[in-house]
Amino acid sequence: MIKVAMIGAGSVVFSRALTGDILGIPEFRDIHIAYMDIDRERLEVSQQLCRKQAEAMGAKPTITATMDRREALQGADFVINMVQIGGFDSTLVDFEIPRKFGLEFTIADTTGPGGLFRALRTFPMLSSLCRDMQEVCPRATLLNYSNPMSMNMQTVFRTAPGLSAVGLCHSVQATFDQLMGYLGEDPAKIAFTCAGINHLAFYLKLEKDGVDLYPRLFAAMEQEEIYNTNKVRFELMRRLGRFVAESSEHTAEYSGWFIPHGRGCQAKLGIPIDEYLRRCDSSVHEFEKLKAFAAGSEPVTEVKFSHEYGSTIMHAMCTGVPRVVYGNLPNGGTIPNLPPTAIVEAPTLVDRTGLHHARVGELPPELVGYIQPHLIQHELFIRAAMEGRRDHVYQACMFDPLTAATLTPDRIVEMCDEMIAAHGDLLPKLEKKSLVPGSGKTFPAVDASRLRASWDAAQAQSTKAVAQTAKS
């Protein structure tokens, strides 16, 4: 019997979606799924929901739940990681301390100070998970869904070389369907290639019967109703010539071209500052609804399948039926003009032998220029985490385009020192001495209620500013 261990299964909506995808495959209807989380309540809700879902689908899986990670991993063929370390309080730190320095974000889970510190606090857990897999289920494949994808996969491949693993995101396939909607085309009839790094991957080819579709996409962009759905990404395409796979909300914070130019620019391009914090708030309400549903007698009446690749990969590896997905793996020679140790997102062949990138070839230099600063951050992150280098934390933030467009080096170092103090024991030890100085300042413990009040105030001010801009 195939066994799947879901680590961080208390992410109820996501674990439910992945479970539905898995049980929708005929060969997996009697699979063993082991749910694991350190939050007992969320773990129980997840288990109850998935039992209901299995019943609705007529599947008969073995479902177990545990707070012991090694128990969940025992005998696993596949391990799915969806853990977010620190929860909402840590996310508030990632937004509110930079805000004090004049730095604002939309999502803050991929790059910049938010992505960097999320990766740093994930490093101890994720490296430990990989060691447990090497000891308990060494032949299992890790499917990582946790952000920041590229930095987390640096943790996996640099701390556990030889482990079978891939980083997975839904941006490439979901955006492709969106683009075909703009053009009125059947996605199944279109050839495409997308490559780069996670959240900064570009559609290099969009073709129908050998005909380039980009001229039609540029024409579609001029239609107001289409442009308004993706203003930031269309502006990026207008300047770089290719469409990027991640949403406009994310893309807005990956360069210094949008957010630093004020509320007027943000309003014009529909840039939702603090969007991720609002999503976190709504997810709390969603959990309460799902909790009540899980405890009740009402059955699941509809099962929707997601865009996620996880179940597709499992099926290909177990049956040998080959599939092509988009995965995040070490570059090697996939994209020759990016570093070989970079984690790149590219077409990935999956079969019984595992996961293997297809060779893409060199990216156009303008796309490399857009991507390169983020690769430097990724390398500085993994060296900071593995070597205890606080100076590399400073440098990783200094090379972030949005941060560099907003703050001087002295202010960046001071911000990093305050964030390191705020996250405390969640981070790896950053004690190795170097000649690069810190801010020389000490910072008090973080009061989560004070941070919440700060965010609420910022939201009120932002709403007021947007309203005033709209009137003018």
Describe the structure.
The chain has helices at 12-23, 40-57, 69-73, 87-100, 112-136, 149-159, 171-183, 214-221, 224-227, 231-240, 248-251, 262-268, 275-295, 310-319, 365-387, 390-398, 401-404, 409-423, 448-471; strands at 3-7, 32-36, 62-66, 78-81, 141-144, 164-167, 191-197, 200-208, 211-212, 323-330, 343-351, 354-357. The N and C termini lie far apart (64 Å). Helix content is 50%, strand content 14%. The chain has a six-stranded parallel β-sheet with strand order 3-2-1-4-5-6, with helices on both faces. A hairpin with a 2-residue loop joins strand 7 (191-197) and strand 8 (200-208). It folds into two domains: 3-94 and 108-169, Rossmann fold, CATH 3.40.50; 95-107 and 170-472, AglA-like glucosidase (LDH C-terminal domain-like). It is globular. The protein is an alpha/beta fold and 472 residues long. It is built from 19 helices and twelve strands.
